[in-house]
Amino acid sequence: MPQIYFCDMENFEHLYEECLLFLPPKRRAKAERIINKNQALLSAVSGLMLRKVLGITDDKQLCYNEHGKPFFEHGPFFSLSHSRKFAMLAVSKEEIGIDIEMNRDINEGIMKRCFTDEEAEFARMSTENYLRIWTAKEAVLKLLGTGFSFSPKGFSVLPFDEEHEINGVKMRFFCGELKDAPFTAAYCENENDFSFRELLPEDLIY
Questions:
Q1: DSSP state of 87
Q2: CATH number belonging to the domain at 3-204, selected among 1.10.3210.10, 2.60.200.30, 3.90.470.20, 2.60.120.820
């Protein structure tokens, strides 16, 4: 069964310096380069999640594809996402991608560049629809490991409840909401459900 771990930044907002102490050098340097304090905290906590769940204590444990996607040479597969308040880590025995977005207004420019006509029509019905399409698109690109080098307008994520074959990969979607923040996971397993666990400061740094 795919697993999703998440952290609420409200639990970590006064613990940034402590978080840095437990990170591998490259991950710590990455967080320290970020000027925005919340983004820096999200980066640091994401690194701690990788340490706790996947045992990543050394930068050399990870490999990277030509588009910068991190992975283990022999699995498990994982995907990270964060947005303002939450950091999420999805782990699976097969390829997986996840994306979470806090509420934001419908962006016509993004829809023109990234959505099919059918998706744009669906997205204009509500902000929730818009965010659901956008998180699904991001999750697919993370699963494929291509980033935006593979055009998000070149495939459709509708309908959400059916299996899709995108760029030669068969996948399904798991749609959820974390305290009013929509998220979507694109995954290749045959499971119909995910397990969830919130990670607290005592899980990561104490």
A1: E
A2: 3.90.470.20
